[in-house]
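Homework help board

Subject: predicted structure for assignment chain

Our instructor gave us this sequence and asked us to write out the predicted structure in C-alpha cell form, then describe one feature. I got the C-alpha cells but I'm not sure how to describe them. Can anyone check?
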Amino acid sequence: MKKKLSLKKLYEGDESQLSASQYSGMDKKSFQEAMKSFSKYSQAIYGSKKLKEACNEIKNLVETAEQMTLQETDQWFDNVTVSRHMKQLKESYKLFEKTATEMTTLQQRLESCYEDIGKNLNNYWDVE
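My C-alpha cell output:
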C-alpha cells in the first residue's frame, strides 16, 4: 500500500515524502502565503452585491426625473423635445436594467465557481 502524499506537509517543509523536490524553500513559502490570502479575492468576487439596490435607486431617479422635468419645463422648453429626451432616458434605463439582470446571473455563476475553486484547493492546501 502506497503512502499518501500530503501536499500540505510538503509545503510546510516536510520534504521526506518526496525524494527530490523541484521547488525551493522560497517558492514554497511564497506559494503558501499566496494560498493563505486566497480569501482576499472574495472582495472582488462578492463586491457587486449592491447592484440590485443601485438599479432600484436609479430607476426611482429616472422616474422622478421624467415627472419633474415634464412639469418644470412646461413653459421653458418645447414639450416635443423634452418628451423625446425622456423617452430616450427610459430606453437607456431599460437597457441598463436588462444588463444589470444579466450581470446578476453571471455574478451568481462567478461566486459559485469561486467557491468551488476554494473547496478544491482546500482539499490539498491550507486556504483561508
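Reply (TA_rk): Your C-alpha cells look well-formed. For the description, you could write something like this. The helical segments are 7-11, 25-36, 42-45, 51-72, 79-122. That's the kind of observation they're looking for.
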